Amino acid sequence: QVRLVESGGGSVQSGGSLKLTCTSTADAYSRYSMAWFRQAPGKEREGIAALARDGSTLYANSVKGRFTISRDNAKNTLNLQMNSLKPEDTGMYYCASRGGPLNTLEARLYNNWGRGTQVTVSS
């Protein structure tokens, strides 16, 4: 399993932006499908954006139009650009990977996880 390390979390006011980064090994993104998840206190982990090996993307309705998932092959990173942040976006954000081409936001289908980075959005 590749090691995933998230960074870029922090505190921001409502309407602000943050960019999360997930760093992995050099060829991870060509071998695995990747995704971002988040978990708020007392809630289940929610899939919010996924990027398949073929480059196709998938977004949860709650973030569609505000968040963008992308990869930077030169830097070996998976990114999540988050704009127009809302207080309900607050939570721990995780990067995850899975083998196979299927693009999915179901957490149970991912078998490799980072430790997460905290995002807090204040009103």
Provide the structure class: mainly beta
Strand content: over 45%
Q: Write down how many β-strands occur, each being a DSSP E stretch of 2 or more residues.
A: 11
Helix share of residues?
Answer: under 10%
Unreliable runs = none
Radius of gyration: 13 Å
Kindly report how far apart the N and C termini lie: 39 Å
Please tally the helical runs, counting DSSP H or I stretches of 4 or more residues.
1
Overall residue-averaged pLDDT value: 93
H-E string:
EEEHEEEEEEEE
Global shape: globular
Largest sheet geometry: 7 strands, mixed
Brief synopsis:
The chain has 123 residues and is mainly β. Helices cover 3% and strands 48% of the residues.
3D structure, described in words:
- 3% of the residues lie in helices and 48% in strands.
- The strands form two sheets. Strands 2, 4, 5, 6, 9, 10 and 11 form a seven-stranded mixed beta sheet that branches. A four-stranded antiparallel beta sheet has the order 1-3-8-7, with no helix packed on it.
- The termini are far apart.
- A hairpin with a 4-residue loop joins strand 7 and strand 8.
- The chain has 123 residues and is mostly beta strands.
- The radius of gyration is 13 Å and the shape is globular.
